[in-house]
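Hey team,

Sharing the Bifunctional protein Aas run so nobody has to redo it. Sequence (1175 residues) first:
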Amino acid sequence: MNSTTIEVTETQKIDPKKGTLNSTSFLALLGTQFLGAMNDNMFRWFIIPIAKPEIGDAQALSLGLACFTLPYLLLASVAGYLADRFSKRTVIVACKIAEIIIMILGIWAIQLGNLYLLFIIVALMGCQSALFGPAKFGSIPEILRDNRLSKGNGLMGLITVVSSALGFIAGNYLYHFTKPSLTSPGSFSDISIAALALVGVAVIGTIISLKIRSLTPADPDRLFPFNPAKETWHQWQLLRSSTPLFRTALGVAFFWMLASMAQMNVDTYGIHELGLAQKDIGPLLGILVFGVAAGSILAGVWSAGRIELGIVPIGAAGIVVTSLLLFFTGSSVVPGSESSSHFYYLLSLLWLFLLGVSSGLFDIPLETFLQHRSDVETRGSILAAANFLAFFFILIASGVFFVMQESFKMSASQIFMVLGLLTIPVGIYIFKLLPNATIRSIVWMVSRTIYKLRVCGHDNLPKRGGALLVANHVSWLDGIFLILTSSRPVRMIAFSTYVQNRWVKWLTELYNTIPINIDDGPKALMASIKTARKAIEDGELVCIFAEGKLTRSGYLQPFQSGLMKIIKGTGAPVIPVYIDELWGSIFSFHGGKFFWKWPRRWPYPVSIRFGKPILHPENEKHVQKVVQNLGIEAADFRKTYQMIPPRLFIRKCKNRRFKQKIADSTGVELAGGKVLTGALLMRRLLNKHVFKQDEKMIGVLLPPSVGGCVVNASLAISGRVPINLNYTLSDSDINYCIKEAEIKTVLTSQKFIEKKPIDMDANVVLLDELKLKATIFDKLICLFQAFLVPAWIIERVIGLRHVDPDELSTVIFTSGSTGKPKGVMLTHHNIVSNINSADDLLHLTSRDCILGILPFFHSFGYTISLWMPFLRNMRACFHFNPTDARTVGKMVEKYEVTLFASTPTFLRHFLKRCTPEQFKSLDLVITGAEKLPQSLAKEFEEKFGIFPTEGYGTTELAPVAAVNIPPSRQLDPDEISAKPGTVGRAIPCVMAKTVNPETMQDLPDGEEGLLFIKGPNVMKGYLNNEEKTAEVIIDGWYNTGDFATIDEDGFIKITGRQTRFSKIGGEMVPHVRIEELITDIVSDPNEDEPEVQIAVTSVPDPKKGERLIVLYKPMNISVDTIIKEINKADIPNLWIPSSDSFLEVESIPLLGTGKLDLAKIKELACEAFSSKVTS
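Structure output:
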């Protein structure tokens, strides 16, 4: 019993002969036990009421129990011999045949009216059960696989107690209906019902037992115990030789003693305390044994494939409490008061059920431990000795019960009190033996109530030997969850300032926590490291949070080198661990504080993922990358249970049904309830009047507005795929997108088409006209659904429950800067995972309002501006023109906007035309699409008090991949969350790396290379272009096509675009760097709204491979002056374009999104210089 937890897993060697819980043999064994236990109790409780008028209640109960129990003591050695010497199946079948004979003799004894012969028959039943017991229990581990033992024993316990309850009730009712009397026995017909029931059950049980498969004798050469006392003594010595097994057997014996006394006492309690008739006693004992059944199942479930002895003290505590409650309840009944009796009867049923549950929790782990830890060769003898001890205690119980009632005249309530008091020292003793396991079980049960725990990769934990667990650190509960989920004890490494606290010191000492204190100098630090190394070398599991502190931002912080000092040279593996979803819980720093916040969900989901062992880690960075990769796996696993965006949309709209949710610059404002009503109504109208049933891809031509939001949401809850078409493209490109996506219908409005006439190859539906088709009934039904029908009913009715998270949420066509637009397929999981990561970093609250100025055909506009406010308890407002700075300023002020995303170009507009008063509510401005000049960022901060930060993303990444966290959203100033000049770190559950563009080998920190991103935000692929998809997605890593460096803290600096590099003389020359240099030379700092004046591209060159070409607008500075200024810069000569490589153009070609039209720029350069190249 000194071993607290034994792990039994599928990875252990499985005996092909052993089966699962639904195998024929095990089911037959359960059926045999069910009918046998039912018949035992039915016969006993049929006899006891017959004997009560003759010898009194106490003597009848005690004598019946003693007669039934004594054979277990006298035949213990014989039972063990039979279970070992012969096939256990043979013993079981023989016992069942004997049962038929005994039942016939019992009916004959009643007919004779012989009281003592009846008790002899009860003793014979005891003999049959005594011989049956070891064979029954010994056959369980021979029939079931090891990893099914706990649940198998739980089911056996359930079957036993249910059948016992039914037997108890049936026995009392058989007596009530037949009313046999020993003084005046009637004819056989008077008890024919009882005879048929008793003999019939025995016969059926015998037939079922024949279905148990043949079992090999454990010890076929064992000799018969002609000296039972000697054999019993041998078995006793065998049991006594193993202290854990002996203690366990004592615990089992104590349980049976309590159970026997409780069973007898319930009869007396019901009659004398509650004033019930004999036939009405049944429900009391029935509820008790059903409680034991529930406790048995609960013990099996809580053990979760292990033998969890920590549950035993919890069961003991339950026995104490419920026994004392029964004492107070029974003592409180007012004699003669029917209402009082009825009330306390119901209360007694509750306490008896809980007493049974507690007893099941107490017994099942002990029974399972006894079976699992006993050797197969001696299992029969060990179980026989344990049974001997248990029934010796039962025999004592029968005598003690008689003495308590007859000599001490104790009431049934007082006997329950004594049982409770007797259990107190037993529970304390077990707790002293198993403090770790008990606390572990208590915490596990509490945590399972508050948290929903999911564990993956549990088999990666070594079954034996030392190992170092390396985990991310998200909350104060991380260590507890790791201890709970490990099948072996784990020694945590923790700062001594935490573990030396007097409130937790005893607990950390109990779990052998290794304290570490960096403030005590290098010697103390090395002593802690040596302690950890020694523990691993001794075969223990040690866990370290390698970040060195709890994350204050949700980011995984750089791993410290201490883990390598611990593991290096030990030969033990590192087990990477990722703790997922705890960021945001009350024990994390989410929201800028620990503890004092409401949980966002109940129960709160927690996932723990154990990775494959790392046998020889290169360094801490190697381990960190493996842990990060586990984070990606964890995020991907979330889709198996997380809601898709349309389902979350319904819930969040209902949460804000009377509060503003979205608004736009036309003055339209909608609360959540009206947004949902509009989406449901639009869905209803589109399905009724527009769409065919199989129509999936739907085009949308609307600006960022309330109407655009509602239409996109209506398509999403319809299970269709909204495709927001880029209305800045040419008609031919728009029709190319329509054809690629097989769009049959495009939704737009009359007003939009008037402003932007487009000749489309699709059925154009004007939503203004469609709205007129809505009837009063349509509106009322949608209003009713939105405001009164629960979300779970709506999603079932409209069919959202079975939508796969990997199904398409949208297709977003790229701007086509290097050719024809490509359709990027984004799934529901792409969208929701990107929003989850953004929320983790930005700490969004109901106070937040986002301004959406980017169109919905832009991935940022679709994911962040549209769906993020829909999936969070926040607001959004929209304006269709990002260059209309005056309106943007008014919108920010009116709706108290707190965050928006923009490009540096648009920021210049806001800087010139918006006032600090208008932007006073802003605390987060993120830029992307182009490099943010630091001078512009400082200017913006000086005027508005907000420092814009850069982020990074692409359409293929849904879109956010990295972001800097500004001081306004930074929870801990000591944690680096932003670096000027970078685009930030990869968002949570996303990884970034750089590779050599030629060898594709990973590069170390600081080296420039191609940027690859991996995570749940990586697109499903390009529409109708598997070849291109395979080019850019390699083993889950997306090739961004951008060149970058990643520093030691994980911050990414974009240095250029792969398509915007030229290979000249064997060197890579970045176009963007040259553009920046020339732009700085030619730009006028006083210009109100600087336009794009320079673009660099390249054309083929026969000598150097490529030649740089500079396109420029007319300017007041000569080319020669530009080249002179460039020469002053510290750049290689190969980077400097020649004077004859400059091409003046009327304007620099741009896309509708404001980005350079690289394809057109290249075309102009080739047209101008092709003849020169040829010549």
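The CA atoms of residues 558 and 583 lie 17 Å apart.

Ping me if you want the raw files.
A.
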